[in-house]
Amino acid sequence: MPTVHLLDYVAGNVRSLVNAIEKVGYTVVWVRSPADVPSAEKLIIPGVGHFGHCLSQLENAGYVEPIRAHIKAGKPFMGICVGLQALFEGSEEDPDVKGLGVIPSRLQKFKDTDKSVPHIGWNSANTSRTGEVTDESLYGLRPSSKYYYVHSYAALYKEGELEKDGWTVATARYGDEEFIGAVEKNNVFATQFHPEKSGAAGLRVLKAFLEGKRSQPLPEKPSAASTKEGLTRRVIACLDVRTNDSGDLVVTKGDQYDVREKDGVSAGGAVRNLGKPVEMAKKYYEQGADEVTFLNITSFRNSPVADTPMLEILRRTSETVFVPLTIGGGIRDTIDTDGTKISALDVAKLYFKSGADKVSIGSDAVTAAEEYYARGKTLSRTTAIETISSAYGNQAVVVSVDPKRVYVSSPDATPHHTIKTATKGPNGEEYCWYQCTIKGGREGRDFDVRQLVTAVEAMGAGEILLNCIDKDGTNSGFDLELINDVKAAISIPVIASSGAGNPAHFDEVFDKTTTDAALGAGMFHRGEYTVKQVKDHLQEQGQLVRQFEE
Ligand code: 1PR
Q: Is the Cβ–Cβ distance between 118 and 462 less than 8 Å?
């Protein structure tokens, strides 16, 4: 097989990139030291996390000059995500750190006044702008395709700025900001999106770069409308995974977090078995899921951390599923079976190495947020959220929230933040607050969801997975009041979860709230609806979606 050199200078999910490269017929040769760079014919620099962290790693390890020399020699070079950003002169993220300076411009943070930041999801990368239409595809990029982005800083597009120096630029729009999604000149190509996480559309781009096919005819004429689109409606399939009573790892699904069969006489039967995790993840990917989330709802108490069965599930899933993978459950400081202490950061590292793009933190986030308030809203820099986000970037840390409604007769009846609700309580109460729970909903805390989400945003979480125990498994639609209340409090993206029972519920949550994504579980697992049916329905209602590409 032909080869490509890959520089692994930062921790992160490089496994998915390796899988994607192998899928398109190439073998990875690792660059382990600056001395390896001159032997590279094609060189890829991936990147996640902070601009400054990546660039200082490159600088300190002595890679900057060999990379510049590779580019100068006219050999093929591709940068991905922070690998694209590295080509610029610098970034607002770390103003004192110098980029490679190949592209004479700087990166800025997206405005969060009218939209969530980070920019997470599927967006375009179009070379044709302002209505002018080309029929040529730059490295397989297509106007009708969508690509997966996750970043807070971007090269904002200024018409003509880079073109005058011979760069070809593909852009996307986020709110009212147009930014660079891909850029190319001679032997240099870079994408802000992750091709390895962008399904068939991304694999096509990677293949075109590796085969040196800069320009190909487009299969269809692009429409002027497609150049104006932004982020698509993100639909996520969630798999709760646990061991059943015979010790097999199964996808299960609870009703208000109770995952045992109810036999009609009493609760407490066998754990519901809805299928095998790896097969089901692949099925949802092929139906068009924009992301797949695994929540490990068993603790695997007898297994050493490095042998946790979820690691193998991720490794196998990332071989066939080329969209982002999130893993939750047990991300916290842990004592291993042999008594060794393992930090949450090390647990997360194992997951990232196995193919996860994000980790989701539940119970530990609640405890950390309570301590944040107890310290007078100061950071400790030692919590799982802080340590993982400072090493891997905020976008890699999701906080999974499991709130429950507590009804009160008036806002004065509790010190907690209440909302006036249209769904009255059992005694006609018109107000409720959302109580945070830990341990899979088993323990309620004297802490409300607003306190939690604002604290974890300050601590460095990049996204909120907003469950709702009252709605979970009910098929009655999302808790729109909860979602609107949380969205009003923070500017990081929110994934609405719990209650989806049919495609119209997805339309409703995107229509009536400003949620950034919506997640379904039971309706997909029970085979009542496919992800494709949800996407088709959204499209019929005029919502922008990404459809699965072969
Ligand atoms: O506390 O960091 O170890 O994380 C544990 C994780 O496992 C948390 O994210 C918590 O939400 C989850 N979890 C724990 N117990 C359960 C359970 O069901 N017994 N599942 C559980 C949470 C809820 C959603 C579900 C949606 C959509 N699952 O993820 O998929 O509610 O369901 P629906 O569309 O069928 O209504 P830690």
A: yes
